[in-house]
Amino acid sequence: MMKGFSALIVIALVNGLIHCQVFFLLYGAVGLTQATSNLAAFCVAAAFSFYVNALFIFGPQQSWSGYLLLNCTMAAVSYGIGSIGDALNLPGWETVALYFLLNLTMGYSFFRFKLLRGRQRV
């Protein structure tokens, strides 16, 4: 079973791939705004991450409140970045790249300094 940093990296990369695919499907093929596409893509990718993190990362006594707070924050960030992309008429790939970098930074920081603090070094 994967633990620690390697699990976080694999989950983050797959999460990013799912997010990109859903974003470009909704934005490019369906014609939704970047804000709506980015939020919907986040929701799909977050559902995947929640399930996989529950299997590989979280312990049985883990508090879910912090993880839920992170997801609510990241949902707002995803919509905000999409709104900025719409307002500035940015290409979709720039919106997704900016969100992906923020998501990686904030997600890793959360896992490293909050969720897994004291349990193991990630």
TrEMBL record:
Pfam family, one: GtrA_DPMS_TM
Protein name as it appears in the record: GtrA/DPMS transmembrane domain-containing protein
InterPro entries reported in the protein's UniProt record: GtrA_DPMS_TM
Highest taxon in the source lineage: Bacteria
Membrane association type: Multi-pass membrane protein
Residue ranges of coiled coil: none
Keyword annotations of the record: Membrane, Transmembrane, Transmembrane helix
Record field: transmembrane: 39-59, 66-84, 96-113
Domain spans labelled GtrA/DPMS transmembrane: 11-93
Localization in the cell: Membrane
